[in-house]
Every structure is written in C-alpha cells, then in structure tokens.
Amino acid sequence: MALTAETESRLYRSLRAAAGAAAHLVALGFPTAVAVLARPGSSLFSWHPLLMALAFSFLMTEALLIFSPETSLLRSFSRKVKVRVHWALQLLALLCALLGLGIITYNKHLNGKAHFVTWHGLTGLLTVLYASGQCAGGVFLLYPKLMKNWTLAKLKLYHATSGLVGYLLGCASLMLGMCSLWFTTTVTSVSWYLAMLCPLLTSLVIMNQVSNAYLYRKRSQH
Question: Which residue ranges does UniProt annotate as crossing the membrane (predicted)?
C-alpha cells in the first residue's frame, strides 16, 4: 500500500524529531561518560578530554539544535532569543575549547612531549582556530550593518554553511581523540564503537537540519 504525501511528510517529521531527541541525549551523555572516564582533577591532562567533549559534543550541538523546528528546547521563544542563546553557547564552547587546548599544550610542555604531531592534535588545533574565526564572523550577523555590501540572507547562508564545516571538524577531532592511546586503553570492545557513534549521530542530525534549512530558503525565494 502506497503512502500518501501527507503520511510520508508526517513520518519524515517524526523520524527527524526522534533523531533530534537522540542527539540531545548523546550531546549530554557523551561528556558525562568522558567525565567518568577522565576523573577531572585527578591530573592536569584529565581536564582536556572533558573540556573538549563539553565544547564540541554538548555546547556546540545544543547551540545548533536551538534552531531545529522539531527538537529545539526553545521552540516557543522568538528567533531573537534563540540567536542570543546560540551566541552564548558558542562562546562557552569556544572558551572550553581554548582552555582545553591550553591545558594539553602546557601538559605536553611539562612532560617534554612534542606538540601537534598527531592527526588528533593537528585537527584539534585547526578546529579551535576555525571556531574562533566562526565566532568572530557571527558578529556580522548580530550587526549586519558592518557588511553593507552583503544581504542578511546571504550572511545567514554563509554563516550556517561555514558553521556546519566547523561542527564537522569538531566531531572529527573527537573521533580522532577516541583513537588516542588514553582512550583506547580506557574504553575497549563494543563500548569503543558505541562511543564513536556519538559524534557521528549528532553530525548527521546537524547536517540534515542545515540542509533542510537551506532547501526551505531556496523554496521561499521562488
């Protein structure tokens, strides 16, 4: 029996809502699990995985899910409020990432280890630098008059696209971190594969959200 267009649309929205709810759970659950494993305060290094998980799994994911029409925790609020909360969460994510980067750099210095010689280290550095630039670029959306030759719609499009790239870099950095010696000796067997699925799931949900927003904007222009 063929599904009607209305039924397909309802089913699609339900699947997106379920995926979004799962993303919320993962965004909070992953850093919680990392906190249990790292035991922050037990060593200087222990703060690095926690801060990076908070930055790129929890804060950044929630900052982007705020604009989801199905799963936003602020659905009843105005877009202006959502934008302000998005900005606050992104700034907190950047602060956590900068602090996490500083801690691991200082820890390597104390232990006489080379800096940024692994794919995880290089990707992490690139991600933090990119996130810094992305936050700076967000200023132009708050104050679009600073970019007189750009329309607000174009600024939003470029910010969303570049933001997605930054988020995927963050997820890639987390996944590479799970290939490190510390993580692979702490988490083994099926648990390791489940941990790897966490940033993969949230990245798929965010990609779907951004692509749908882009398609909606294209349709509204015709």
Answer: 17-38, 44-67, 87-106, 118-143, 164-184, 190-210
Q: Domain 17-214 class?
A: mainly alpha
Mean pLDDT (the chain, rounded): 90
The answer to whether residues 141 and 155 touch, using CB atoms and an 8 Å cutoff, is: yes
Closest to 125 in 3D by CA, of 172, 87, 90 = 172
DSSP string of 6-51, one letter each residue: HHHHHHHHHHHHHHHHHHHHHHHHHHHHHHHHH-TTSSSTTHHHHH
Structural domain boundaries of the chain?
Answer: 17-214
DSSP 187: S
Residue pair 44/103 in contact by the 8 Å Cβ criterion: yes
Question: Quick one: residue 189, left, alpha or beta (phi over 0 = left, psi -120 to 50 = alpha)?
Answer: left
DSSP state, residue 178:
T
Is the distance from CB of 71 to CB of 24 less than 8 angstroms?
yes
DSSP string, 135-151: HHHHHHHHSGGG-TTS-
Confidence of residue 4 (pLDDT cuts 50, 70, 90): low
Question: Is 180 within 8 Å of 222 (Cβ atoms)?
Answer: no
